[in-house]
Prior knowledge:
Layout: H1 2-18, H2 24-44, H3 49-53, H4 61-71, H5 76-79, H6 83-102, H7 106-123, H8 131-142, H9 152-156, H10 166-196, H11 199-202, H12 206-211, H13 223-226, H14 229-249, H15 255-274, H16 277-286, H17 293-340
Helix pairs in contact: 2-6, 2-16, 6-7, 7-8, 8-10, 8-16, 10-14, 14-15, 15-16
Amino acid sequence: MSVFCKIANSLSAASRRLSTGRRQFGVAVMRIVLGSVMTVLYGIHFSQRHFLWGADAVLTHADNSAILAARRTWSLYAVFPSAFGAECLYWLGLIVALMFAAGLFTRVTSILFFVFTWSLYLRNPYVLNGGDNLLVILGIYLIFADLGALSLDHGLVRKRHEGSFSWLSGMLHNFAVAACLLQLGIVYFEAGFYKIQGHVWSDGTAIYYILRSNGFALPGWGDYIWRSAGLVTICTYGTILFEITHAFLMWHRRLKYVIFSGAVLLHAGIGLLMGLVWFSVTMIGAHAILFDDDEYIRLHNWLRAAWRQIVAAFRGSLGAGARSHDAEAAAGEAAMIESAG
């Protein structure tokens, strides 16, 4: 009996550790970023929705059905192929993405967000940019996470209802967090591993050819880099080093800040120099999961204290200016009285 008691106590302790939910702010930030990216995507392509995803889109329903059949997958746009059906799906997808970003009814909208995002991407896979793969995978994991932090749900329902299965929801939340972290590590390790096998990456010239590509380049910005052999070599090998070490250093309590800074630098460069803005925003937003709630609270407190200091300094400068103006006015009045006397 003592052995079974020890096993039961161990399982109970493990359940309590798994249900702590110490990364609720991280998944909330991911929810906001992913939902906002899809909301913007729906918005900026609104005038082109019929051409890209409508009934008479550039990729016909027959061709799309053949692609879906070959991949053994599905899309709601294939189920409702009419112009009215495609229009309704587009509007519903936009509304769901907006509700998901705002955190309204997250238990339901997290599922709908994945369904509509998947359906939109599979309706016309030729408009994808790579960030959609990670976005969809993370969308699956977020279905099982607690997304109530930083949400309208949290404002509408102040009191949490603790049910008999609250420990299970806590475990699912933490498993979702672990899955997001593992996925992030796999993405960068694979990217770096396959880069090493390419000769333009191994000889340090890959960035030159990337920035000289007409398909993914913003003229003028990349000229400062590809014209310098030293910068090309540093950026090429630096990218490989970052991606290979990402999967290992992201778990370290301090070095994860270096990884996050490297991700921001890398993807800001991709967004600026290659024009893949929403891909970069998605990849940077995915790194929000690296930090726990205590770190977000410390950041919030630091920002609030810094803001108070800025406001106090600004008010102090205004007060000093007012006092100086009053002193000058008083001195002028005194001079006038003396001259009149």
